[in-house]
Design goal:
single chain, 966 residues, mainly beta, 7-stranded antiparallel β-sheet, 6-stranded mixed β-sheet, F-box_dom, F-box-like_dom_sf, F-box-assoc_interact_dom
Amino acid sequence: MADLPRPLSLSILLRLPTKRLLVCRCVCKTWRNIISDPQFAKLHFSKAEAFPLVRSLSPTHISRNLYLVEPPEHSSGFDLRDCSYCYGYSSSERHFHMKLETKLKIPLCNVELAMNSEGDVNVSGNSKGGVKRKRCIKLRPKDHKLNLVNSCNGFLCLSEPSRNDPVVVCNPITGEFIYLPVLASADESFSRKFRDCGLGFSPKTNQYKVIRMFDQQEQVNERVRDPITGRESFSPRVAEIHTLGTESWKRIGWAPSSTHGYKLEFPSYLNGALHWLVMDYNISEYIASFNFDKEIFQPIPPPPLGRGMIGREWETMKDIALGALKDRLCICHHDSVSFEIEVWVMKKYGVQKSWTNVFRIDTTTEESRWLHGVYEPISYLRNGSILFFHRLANAVVYYNAKGRFSSLKFLKIRGVKSKYEAIAYTPSFISLNNAVMGDNLATLNVASRRPMKRGRKPRGFNAGKVEKDMDELGKQQKQYLGPSMADLPRPISLSILLRLPTKRLLVCRRVCKTWRNIISDPQFAKLHFSTAEAFPLVRSLSPTHISRNLYLVEPPEHNSGFDLREYCDCYGHSLSGRHFHMKLETKLKIPLRNAELAMNNEGDANVSSNSKGGVKRKRCIKLRPKDHKLNLVNSCNGFLCLSEPSRNDPVVVCNPITGEFINLPIPTQADEKTRRVSDCGLGFSPKTNHYKVIRIFHQQERVYEQVRDPITGRENYSRRVAEIHTLGTDSWKRIGCAPSSMYGYKLEFPSYLNGALHWLLKDYNISEYIASFNFDKEIFQPIPPPPLRRGIISLETMENISLGVLRDMLCICDHDSHVFKINIWVMKNYGVQESWTKVFRIDATTKQSRWLRGVYEPISYLRSGAILFFHRLANAVVYYKAKGRFLKFLKVRGVKSKYEAIAYTPSFISINDAVMGDNLATLNVTSRCAGLKLQGETKALFLREEDEDMDSDFDSSSDLDSSTTD
């Protein structure tokens, strides 16, 4: 969890109960900072609900512990199992238990006296039943613990025990508290007798305020009207208010009172006002409120109770309680005649007609017993249950209307017989420093004895050091730009990385080890390849330069992928010869034909910075013609087959994305004298899960019997022979006769699909001119061709036909030079001639009404709906979109030399994971040494490479001397 970015951690922590958050706050600084953040505190409080806050009322012990009774996750929240005959109770008095796990702390009344008391006693472990007691403090009655008055937005108001004077406002969740201003000696001489107090919040001014009411001993000269009851007297009650953050109290006028001199009961904060119950049966509006915005007292219209009027019996008022349930004012009336509890809520604040009777609860238990008294509403839980507190029963009362037995359940505290109190409390992580206005506010913590005054310099303050630390902190804050991708957990990172193009993935692989491990993972490589598509893989064909650089031309995100803006009159082209450009950004590398000769060549030359225009050239290598670069044969599942340039003998299989390659077994000297390799290719056997390389060569020695060609069916004495090599083995295996054409042409356009390698036979005397080699069966087979334009294929027609693969379907591209059209056929059902479908008929003329003859080799059918070809005569990749009208020829900016392009699907699959065999020697283009795959383990040998990367033909400084190679 600590590795998650801040937004995700915040979202998860917001869903945890308070108990879990208090634990998480102590785990690490990251979580502590999140939970202590003001924004988190506000979001958490907006979703929180009220729960019972329990404290012991033992007359002999003073404790600053409070317990928040929260429902555990996915349950009713309490131990509702029957517990009979436990702790001395009879079997007829069944009860249930609360779990007091979330312990909070509040300050003591005289903390200094408590901490420095000389009367501290440690009770021994042998006292009363052998239960070891905790440390307790002996204090006189006047030093008793503080009273709980009420809660407001997660803050508690605590009052002095003897006179009920409000002295402390605290947040038990954060442990912070502040002292309220004390009375001056002159004020104390009036002998005030405080009656009522409470804490509230003014939404208009965004301030917290405390109100206190006391009986004024001196009589006034004129009669004063009570703001709620309307009675007049010469000795009224006075109200004062204090705004947290200030240093004084302000008198606001007269306060409500009752005829019997009772205190105002059940202080409850709601909607910017504090509400009480006036214990007076002679009035019709017995709910008093104090508005903290206007700072005035106002009556609240009550609900229509049982007999229409509260006035007939005094006992009626004693059985009414006030509270708030789900942000609505609530009245709980216990009818002692019908033994029922009526729960009324005011759905629209201040509107009497909105009072609604939402519950009518039978107070008799399962044993048909009834308990009289006041049921104080605490909370209406999300599971539909409601909580009350019953002082006489010394229990929290639980009722669930959806339960099987809709009866009250009295929740006791396990193992405790002393009385306790419970009030409704909504937990909040809002700090007093952030909630209370003022610069001179002294806030304390229950875990510390020293206050920290806001705006005051702490002891040992060093201005220079603090200023330096603040500067460094400011720099860090400026540099911090939020959570990064590297902070995401592995599954999320994998899902995001799978959506990136190859160019971005090659960059991400070098960012950190985490990303490199994900991208190098075999599972990631398989998932990435399953969603990848083919793109042009471009390489220079300069006759004077040797380069191991390849360029993968990918469409950038959210566009066609190429620079399709028109360029005219550039690099010597006329105005009528408009063309477009490819962006060669993704550079890959393949091995050289003679790597050791290249690296150890003594003729290496560093071209000086003064050569040709003052452009500094990179290091270049002189090589003889026989050391020319390797040929690109074909690709299969992201791997490339490279052949020897002069005889076209396959010598290397590589993955240019990972840079890995393996050398194929070389023939013996005796074999070299009797063969001339003409065709080769790489394929994959799905049945055996092996990669295989096939090579076809002319056997110089004649045979003594005629052999039938597997494709054309002709018989001859001089045959072509095929051999196959399974990657991971050490030898080649001869498999028999190979197909050939009458004119001795090579098999064109090797294309791998569905476990077979396909070629085009240039022979007009046959009806099936598509040859294939099945790597599972290791046999040659013909593929039925599409029905082309005139049914009979001439040699001229064959010269304008090309073979390829588009979206996992075999494709034939036929350029009809008579009508200047390009017909594209795809085989939708592999091997079924009737499934050949003409999907495109493209006008081969350009925007300037020019026509370019030659072969259009299919490369890719992009997801954007565009199709790509390669045209060798035009030395360009051709782009066509179905919605467009003309072909677009994509050149390489600033390069006049010829190049080649083949279809390539990028893959991050490692050769070590794809090729079977334990003695496989794999190499990397960035290293001179091989990593030997021994018994399934790859032991990589790394040698520091001192030479620099070789230059590319596509750089601006590509016109090097004809005798050198980059």
